[in-house]
Amino acid sequence: MIPFEYHRASSVQDAVTAVADRPDAVFLAGGTNLVDHMKLGVVEAGLVVDVGHLPLNDVDRLPDGTLRVGADVRNSDLAAHPIVRSHYPVLARALLSAASGQLRNLATTAGNLLQRTRCVYFQDVTTPCNKRTPGSGCSAIGGYTRYHAILGASGHCIAVHPSDMAVAMAALDAHVVYVDADGEHRMPLSDFYRLPGDRPDRDTTLPAGALITAVEIPPPPDGARSTYRKVRDRASYAFALTSVAAELVLDSGTGSVAGARIALGGVAHMPWRAHLAEQALIGESATEDTFRRAADAELAQAEPVQGNEFKVELTKRAIVATLNGLAEGRQR
Amino acid sequence: MESAHFTELTLHVDGTEHTLRVDNRTTLLDLLREHLGVTAPKKGCDHGQCGSCTVLLDGRRATSCLAFAAAHNGAEVITSAGLGDADALHPVAQAFLDHDGFQCGYCTPGQICSAVGMLDEVKSGTPSHVTDDLERSVELTDAEIRERMSGNLCRCAAYPNIVDAIHKAAR
User: Fold this and answer.
1) Cα separations (Å) of A199 from A43, A155, A202?
2) Is the Cβ of A296 closer than 8 Å to some Cβ of chain B?
3) ipTM exceeds 0.90
4) Do residue B134 and residue A1 have CB atoms under 8 angstroms apart?
5) Got the DSSP string for B45-94?
6) Best residue in B27, B52, B66 to probe A by mutation, most A CBs within 10 Å?
7) Predicted structure pTM score
8) Which of B35, B53, B57 is nearest to B44 (CA)?
9) Looking at chain B, which residue has its C-alpha nearest residue A93?
């Protein structure tokens, strides 16, 4: 690790000012990904600006029902929050499925959104990686691809975004609130993340030097039922091979699908909002056949690579199983 | 030595206040072990994956290997050495003894701190990945203990006895 200056930000404005004109600066909050990457040499920071002590710790319900989650709210606290547990179970379950108890106590909302891929080649600085060094090549293609993308990848990068929380937030149409030199802005989470294209070094569209201050989640529709299903090689403390964040609203009269929001994790460079699956569900009966057709519709565009072909069928089955559970009114 | 790369900080460790000046790269784990001689928390993986470095940081269990000491100036740190003492073991430590919850003992300090933190989380009603109903209070089953302790690896596989010990300590 290279030596660095440490500055504890006294305010949001101070944090933004501190990193301006310092391309070697990083923001630190929980540190559960950043400190690891600094140890691995993936990140070389000359200035660490600690934003973990700013007054960004609140979870507030705004007058219109929007849930505003402060950037520094710990993952464990967000998962345990009564409003999240009752109104957004998909979010609580996504958070609880992630990492370990110790890590959830340190990790923050903004840090979780900004965490970087766990691709083994990205994290090994001795291997070529277009995400670390554009143009150097992708070591994953033709290598160990079990945890890599089947959707939206490119010949430059097949890495996946590792967050579970972000998948739930994508399904919930969250917005990211951030501050830069021009003041406060917000953008939909769907615009926040990028597909790799030919610039896999850019995970997000967050402007350089901007500080995320909150995430805003609109109120759920009446009658919504939601959950998160994570499929992985171990029962706990492992990243997803594939995951499904799903919310259904069933028509109280006919029982057919009145609303559906679905996002997939572990399969793409960003949380993958399954728009084609959603469209295939609306107005249809809430049966397994319907769910299977919706999964087929979404995964028709899948482009697995050698070593992760299994993930296409696995994802379809995960979608079906998740929707079956919601339709039957099961808790999980 | 570039002074901009160092920070003077104060930490309260196992009931004792320490003030020292460290390289900003120093993790909380290395500060405890190398600078203060508090060797209870162990360095297993140094990447936040094994849990043997678990301490109670401002009352909550945390992986000390991924915390920069400079970022926790003023914090209260409790290691397994600070839980009870040799004459009066903490109930969790006593339970690990009573139920043979260790073999080589390397993961044990982290297991004990993690269990103490975990039991506090259960008491405050925090659900887990295996909790069926997110809105009801938690019943500490085997499955709940295993899930909540999944961040602490034990290569000797003392897991069954660790679970027994935690059941005992929870009562």
Assistant:
1) 18, 11, 6
2) no
3) yes
4) no
5) SSSSSS-TTEEEETTEEEEGGGSBGGGGTT-EEE-GGGSB-SSSB-HHHH
6) B66
7) 0.98
8) B53
9) B129
